[in-house]
């Protein structure tokens, strides 16, 4: 059974940083696509960032490029999202996702991922 457990969300002020973690059990993440998505109230889940397998290739949505960094610790089977210079518009529920059959062209497509975490709330407010 594959489980993804997220942690690290919370309430911060604009300009602050947060680091989200996603610990995966039941599968090895090293050669899989690992991604973060977020969902605003009443909206569809949208792509934030991803790592494509073991290539080291990362992709980011334009809205977070230069502020967010996705990384993975294969030894700990954990994926991270470092979020710096947070803005109020980053407020959302953040989800990690994991898929062993994701191809590069589908990296930003939520339907390409097989496994999802439960979501963690990030609130940026003064």
Strand segment count = 11
Radius of gyration: 13 Å
The helical percent reads under 10%
| First-residue to last-residue Cα separation | 40 Å
Low-confidence stretches: none
Major sheet characteristics: 7 strands, mixed
Shape: globular
Estimated structural class: mainly beta
Average pLDDT works out at 95
Percentage of residues in DSSP E strands: over 45%
**SSE string, helix = H, strand = E?**
EEEEEEEEEEE
> Can you count the helices?
0
In short:
It contains no helices and 11 strands. It is mainly beta and 126 residues long.
Give the tags.
seven-stranded mixed beta sheet, mainly beta, 126 residues, 48% strand
Structure description:
The chain has 126 residues and is mostly beta strands. Helix content is 0%, strand content 48%. It is built from no helices and eleven strands. The protein has strands at 3-7, 10-12, 18-25, 33-39, 46-52, 57-60, 68-73, 78-83, 92-99, 115-116, 120-124. Strands 2, 4, 5, 6, 9, 10 and 11 form a seven-stranded mixed beta sheet that branches. Strand 7 and strand 8 form a beta hairpin. The protein starts with a strand and ends with a strand.
Task: Describe the SSE topology.
Layout: E1 3-7, E2 10-12, E3 18-25, E4 33-39, E5 46-52, E6 57-60, E7 68-73, E8 78-83, E9 92-99, E10 115-116, E11 120-124
Parallel strand pairs: 2-11
Antiparallel strand pairs: 1-3, 3-8, 4-5, 4-9, 5-6, 7-8, 9-10, 9-11
């Amino acid at each position: 059974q594959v489980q993804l457990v997220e942690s690290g969300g919370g309430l911060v002020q604009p300009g602050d940083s947060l680091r989200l973690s996603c610990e995966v059990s039941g599968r090895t993440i090293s050669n899989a696509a690992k991604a973060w998505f977020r969902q605003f109230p009443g909206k569809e889940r949208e792509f934030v960032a991803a790592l494509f397998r073991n290539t080291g290739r990362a992709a980011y949505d334009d809205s977070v490029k230069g502020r967010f960094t996705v990384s993975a610790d294969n030894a700990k089977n954990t994926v991270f999202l470092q979020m710096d210079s947070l803005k109020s518009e980053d407020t959302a529920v953040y989800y990690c996702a994991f898929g062993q059959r994701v191809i590069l062209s589908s990296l930003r497509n939520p339907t390409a991922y097989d496994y999802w975490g439960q979501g963690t709330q990030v609130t940026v407010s003064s």
